[in-house]
């Protein structure tokens, strides 16, 4: 019984501690385990491999991600490297000019196009700037195997030619000449450039791209207020969780003590009953006195 109570108490403590640790994490970084761009790219590639079986060359496939990623659009196109070199690609928001070679060279390649929509700011953040357009991206993979895409990204050798990325018209409140193109790289790196024409950015490599404007003091304040609110929520939630933990431990301790007292009372009832007497208001046990008759000396005296 005591072992069972101890196991339950430790189990309750571990559950409460895990809840306490999870509160600030959910507040600061969201509840998605795919919290980095690298992990998202790996997941999309894995999901594409599981969803598409023997994709046809030249056919556009729209891949529907699970509900937790429903804000992200993914399209996949398979090319022959020879036709990719001659014609290039004009797809949706991207224009990849001809005479681009995948490196290392492969006979066939697949390009995965992404539009992160409302999840853009969850995966990409530029300090001091606000993203005003969805993050658009594309990556090239080896497709020589007709059933499985290669896990390693291919480099596209542009030889000085520029890839164009077209964005939807941005809100009028941002039409102040401060809009910059931003190329979002690995490990939170980023690179700014000017728009080559309205709503159009240029790049020399594959990756992810967006439009950004400098944060105004009011936006800085809003961002700081939001972070402060999450800290308050985490602190208050942690305090209540710790209070609940203390209450649970106290209740379990009392339960264990009561169990021990009941066991001691049961054991005492099985023993020899003792009389009681009072000294003042104190009740004390008293054993009845039984005189042991001498067996040797008195018998000899009587005889």
Automatic annotation (TrEMBL):
<protein>
    <submittedName>
        <fullName>Uncharacterized protein</fullName>
    </submittedName>
</protein>
<dbReference type="Pfam" id="PF06697">
    <property type="entry name" value="DUF1191"/>
</dbReference>
<dbReference type="InterPro" id="IPR010605">
    <property type="entry name" value="DUF1191"/>
</dbReference>
<dbReference type="GO" id="GO:0016020">
    <property type="term" value="C:membrane"/>
</dbReference>
